[in-house]
Amino acid sequence: MNTRLAFSDLETESTGGDPTFALALGGGGARGLSHIAIVEALDELGIKPVAISGSSIGAIVGTARACGMSGNEIREYTFDTVGNRGKLLNKLWSLGPATMRDKLGGFRFGHFNLELILDALLPPDIPEDFAELDIPMKISVTDYYGQTEVVLEQGELRAAIAASAAIPGLFMPVMINDRIMIDGGVCNPVPYEQLMDLADVVIGVDVVGAPEGDGTHPPSRLDSLFGASQLTMQASIALKLKLNPPHIFLRPSVNRFRVLDFFKARDILDEAEPVKDELKRAIDALHVMARRA
Of 42, 70, 96, 108, whose CB neighbour count within 10 A is largest? Predict the structure, then answer.
């Protein structure tokens, strides 16, 4: 595991009030199910974030928390849907009277309609509009032709989630405000900087991962495609950490899982369990530093 603590920019509250926390959850496909452990740890500490941001899978888990679901509720819903092969297939087949092939956009990479898939899989608690959320939520998407990050905070919520999670090569882009939007992680893998002025403590969580292997065997074509994306995003994260790190930065130990390993939800969360104590220790350390200051 990898934890980064940044104390220099922490502003303590001289009045003795409790510090406020904001949470930034990054992209990484199925590895991002480990975000649930982070939410659970904050629940156990009695900490409710004052703001949440998310890219890709981080936008999904973050929005679930922002609408009022607890970490445990998100965990159980995950096990009951994407973590259950039979139920997941039944959900997909229930998309409508047309054939599932037509509904999803065709059984080819890059043609899956994520908006329809999420309509079948997202918790019913997630509302239609940002304004109905219990916690303010910022969702990062990438304007494909504008070549820039766009942060969505109002309007149609589910379209924003779909756009943020529209991994290139797997899912169709999503049209928002007459612009073609794709995976938010392309421009901002861990969107913590948009929270830095909103809370005393900002927690960033990186589940991008990196290619693994013995260094002698060439990757498959699919692994090389995702691996190259991981390398690009990690370079972006490394630069951001040098320029303006969050107060707490976490990397759950889920690197061995692949982007589409959603059926391994229980294994992913088992592997991520130690990050809960890691986060609690980091928060304790910040409290100690704040008192000394």
Answer: 42
